[in-house]
């Protein structure tokens, strides 16, 4: 019973893989079955390795190599139980901090999954449009500020020139009035 069930699971996984590889096209007409291709490749590998003792020995040792490359096996060889315990204790503060952060995240899960947060990707375009409008308005305000400064400088220059001219006219008028008084007194 368990053998039939595992065979059905394996066949379903292969069918899913064929669907991923071949898509919805007619795989029986256009493509060979995956299992047949894999069997053919396996036969070619076996045939090519039949006369080569070193390659065949290497091929037979692949499961052992896979075991040595497994992270858990390497860690088991390198670290004793005491060393693993010591490394866990050394990381205790970090793990405790991560646990606290995880608890905060769990507590705020309703807020994180709220419709307001879920709507953020939809509002990105609006935010970008508003940001561009704000940048444009800031540029316009900067240009307006510069134009206002220029006009105020021009106004101040003109007023300064008028003031100097009025002072010169006032001095000239005072001198002419004094000369006129002196002529009247001399007459």
Can you tell me about this structure?
The chain has 187 residues and is mostly helical. The chain has a domain at 129-181. It has helices at 2-22, 27-30, 34-49, 53-60, 62-69, 71-78, 81-90, 92-107, 109-112, 115-118, 120-186. It starts with a helix and ends with a helix. It comes from Biomphalaria glabrata. This is Dynactin subunit 3-like isoform X2. One of its GO terms (biological process) is cytoskeleton-dependent cytokinesis. InterPro entries: DCTN3.
Care to give the gist of this entry?
By secondary structure, the protein is mainly α.
Q: Roughly what fraction of the amino acids lie in strands?
A: under 5%
**What form results from the Cα inertia axes?**
elongated
How is the main sheet built? none
Task: Return residue spans where pLDDT drops below 50 for at least 5 consecutive residues.
Answer: none
Pfam families: Dynactin_p22
InterPro entries: DCTN3
Protein name: Dynactin subunit 3-like isoform X2
GO biological process, one term: cytoskeleton-dependent cytokinesis
Summary tags:
mainly alpha; 187 residues
Secondary-structure map with pairings?
Blueprint lengths: L1 H21 L4 H4 L3 H16 L3 H8 L1 H8 L1 H8 L2 H10 L1 H16 L1 H4 L2 H4 L1 H67 L1
């Amino acid at each position: 019973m368990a053998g039939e069930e595992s065979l059905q699971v394996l066949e379903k996984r292969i069918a899913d893989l064929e669907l991923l590889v071949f898509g919805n096209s007619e795989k029986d007409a256009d493509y060979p079955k995956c299992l047949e291709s894999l069997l053919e490749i396996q036969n070619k590998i076996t045939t090519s390795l039949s006369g080569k003792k070193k390659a065949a020995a290497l091929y037979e040792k692949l499961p052992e190599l896979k075991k040595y490359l497994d992270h858990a096996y390497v860690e088991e060889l390198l670290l004793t139980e005491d060393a693993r315990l010591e490394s866990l204790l050394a990381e205790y503060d970090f793990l405790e901090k991560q646990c606290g952060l995880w608890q905060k995240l769990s507590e705020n899960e309703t807020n994180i999954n709220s419709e307001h947060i879920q709507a953020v990707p939809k509002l990105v375009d609006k935010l970008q449009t508003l940001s561009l409008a704000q940048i444009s308005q800031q540029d316009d305000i900067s240009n307006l500020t510069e134009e206002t400064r220029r006009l105020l400088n021009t106004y101040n220059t003109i007023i300064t020139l008028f003031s100097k001219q009025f002072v010169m006219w006032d001095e000239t008028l005072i001198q002419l009035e004094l000369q006129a008084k002196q002529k009247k007194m001399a007459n």
